[in-house]
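Minutes, project check-in
Item: structure for the 438-residue chain
Input as provided by the requester:
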Amino acid sequence: MPSKGTVVRISERVTRCRGFHPALRALAAGALFSCGALGQPAGFNYDESKVPSYDLPEILRRADGRIVDAAAEWPARRTEILKLFEEQVYGISPGAPAHMRFTVLEEDDAALGGLARRKQVRVDFGPAGRSSMEILLYTPASAGRHVPVFLGLNFGGNHTVHSDPAIRMPTRWVLERDGTETRRRDADDTRGRSASRWQVERLLKRGYGVATVYCGDLDPDFDDGFENGVHPLAPPISPADWGSISAWAWGLSRALDYLETDAHADGSRVVVMGHSRLGKTALWAGARDMRFAMVISNNSGCGGAALSRRRFGETVARINTRFPHWFADNFSQYNGEEDSLPVDQHMLLALVAPRPLYVASAEDDSWADPKGEFLAAMHAGRAYELLGEQGLGVSEQPPVNQPVMRTVGYHIRTGKHDVTAYDWDRFLDFGDLHLKRD
């Protein structure tokens, strides 16, 4: 397969070499965990007084210098911004496959002690067994048809989001915390290990469905030279082609394709949500696919909701060096050159407008730059206001555990890099505000 880009950084020559063992590639790329799981690495700025002065690109200034001052002019400006993010940051993705198929593998109308309907669906993107993903979907058993659904990717397999013994085990790469990968079925003792991050019963009792896909079905989270997952459907050959975040986001859109056909899910009320690197993914999926009714970013940090130009916590150079497979190769030209970026993350958030957008931060997650996440959400309000919606409506970061909810919502909670019951309660409140029907 062709290499991803014509210009390859020296640190990537080893990790993308054909025949190099995947486990060693993962170690060489340092791509085993999310940035937040590593704590707050030394040698980076965590002092607000040392944030450099910077000027953000204007959301409403066209490439030719004209200012967008009417809602009718926004689609053209939106197209410009989207193209910049595609070519310079996340990479260009293909469209939906021509021959996608949905196969129901298992269903139960009285799952979780009668609380839920459970359905497990394989989505084939081409010939059976070549490229596919599995969707786990729970909807409230007591609800009628067409309920709103929270959709997100998970890190370790669908079986990790709940201890339900009927959830199918993954058959693809599973990253282990000791730096090894395996194609074996994950051990039963990992069932439900991430349940606190999903709060399935909480969502069902509030009248929402929850759907999830293992991100490794779409692309393994290590630098494998794009030999696995969905990349072979459109092999990256240009520095502007899709990286892992774009592949994961592409998969979220394919999950939405399925949810639009499911009788118990309302495809017009699907919320895309993600945490950490998968929060970056949720934002990119929501920016690219206007069918998502709401977009939620949790602790997404650099390359997600946080402003790159602040250089607070994780930086563009750090993320590109440690996780070279996440972004388009073009993004690496901005290592240490954030002011040269033609975009910043407030513009990514603006691409969600006029749909509801929620950004969540954590007080002890300095690596993800909570203030930079807030500022991006605040500045994105320019696009919302242009389109007749409310932005955040505040210019100062709110106190801890005091959320702000308009068309754009934000909170910073106590605690570390994680998804907690507090976060989910706020996401559900935001869903009630914008998606619930009388």
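Outcome recorded: Residues 1-38 have pLDDT under 50 and may be disordered.
No further action items on this chain.
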